[in-house]
Amino acid sequence: MELPRDAERLSVYIGESDERDGRPLYEVLVEEARRQGLAGATALRGRSGFGANSRVHTSRILRLSEDLPMKVEIIDVPEKIDAFSAWLDGVLKEGLVVREKVRVVFYRHNGGKK
Question: What confidence score (pLDDT) does residue 58 get?
Fold first, then answer.
């Protein structure tokens, strides 16, 4: 797969404990991105953060470390981001979604070689 130099990044900010059908939401998002044929998706676990309710989630305080921030990033062409965003709108009940233009410098894979 080739990505053009001008692409878009979709960033989805959710909580680690967010679920969809009993499964972690970040896993569902990554799997759906793959199913839709997007170039790739990465789920990142935050160490600290807060959202709309202003409750701080941090790995430093044991009782608050149960719902750390998660960010799922996807980079692809605008048309594929459009399709994924439409699906996401029906799935996401809480969180923040950011979409921005990016410039792809490299996108390489080993072609299945080890």
Answer: 60
